[in-house]
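Researcher: Here's a chain I'd like modeled. Treat it as a single chain, no partners, no ligands.
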Amino acid sequence: MITARYVQTMARYNAWQNGQVIAAADTLDEAARRADRGAFFGSIMGTLNHVLWADTIWMHRFAGWPKPRGGIPESPALHDDWAALKAARAEADRGILDWAGRVTDAALGTDLVWYSGAIGRDMVSPMALCVVHVFNHQTHHRGQVHAMLTTAGAQPGDTDLFLMPDPA
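Model: Modeled as a single isolated chain. Structure tokens:
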């Protein structure tokens, strides 16, 4: 389905896009970041918190990271402080990049076993499918944030994968 190289590329894309979204959100005031804009997780900050929460719960499953507090309903309030959210996002992106650098094609061919609090049962799914889900989830919700930022007058920048800068 996917390769370790795909995972590394998507981890780079994730970090690049999160950097752009955070930089655009930095141009807004606190009230604009917290304003309920009708998205599933309400605000720019709530949605960014949810994405970070979801990345962290999946990395808990993939790489043994500490489990984030709360569940999906509490995820928009993961960090109440903008600076703390930005710092945690940057740390998570570094961790995801590090993990992606160690992923092997063989590991992607295994099954992942976990308990899903969202549906209340044990799960078994192909690891590759779960990894694709994580990157798809990030892109989905970041697209919502991109739309909210644009509506608020910020400029989040390009999102096209082929425009991603080459690694330094």
